[in-house]
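Action item from last week, closing it out:
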Amino acid sequence: MLKRLLILLASLLAVTACQAADGGATEWKAGTHYFPIDPPQAPAAGGKIEVVEVFSYACPHCAHFQPFADELKAKLPKQAQFTYLPAIFHDSWELFARAYYTAEAMGVLDKAHQALFDALHRDRKPLGRLEDIAQFLAGLGVDPKAFLSTAQSFVVNAKLQRSQDLLRAYGIDGTPSIVINGKYRVTAASAGGLAQMVDLSLWLVKRELAASGK
């Protein structure tokens, strides 16, 4: 009899714990855990819910967040699309934003993205010039001359300007930040941590999907 009572008590505790966890996931509050963007910005995800990570290769917090960014990408529904937006908060960050858009334009972002984080924050490689980054990426099979040429192209310069305009429109004041569908901004501080940024971003994506009927 005692054993049955203990089992019943354990079951009730488990249910209570699950309910508490589920309830906690619905208690995100605008202005506290995430911030509405006013006015909202039109997403560029071709009809999908847009999830944007604002980051910099120079930012150590962004390097720490990268595994969580991969988790977020993996958990997004098919109606959502993840992308990156490099921030320039300091003059020294401009070359890393330029490196991002250059790698994107050359179609080598998949091999360059994590490698640049690792080179800067794990291996402490001196990548203070665009030529240094070009030589580093040459080790990954990227043509350094093509990289340097593309880095100064009209397309890359235009994307750099557009990124700065979006940063101001989103009200970004730190990295990493997540922007959901041009409407909501999430930070680690507001969400309660890096893992919570993932949970909150997914919750906002589901809410946007429900609102759009997708």
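Closing note: Confidence is low (pLDDT under 50) at residues 1-25.
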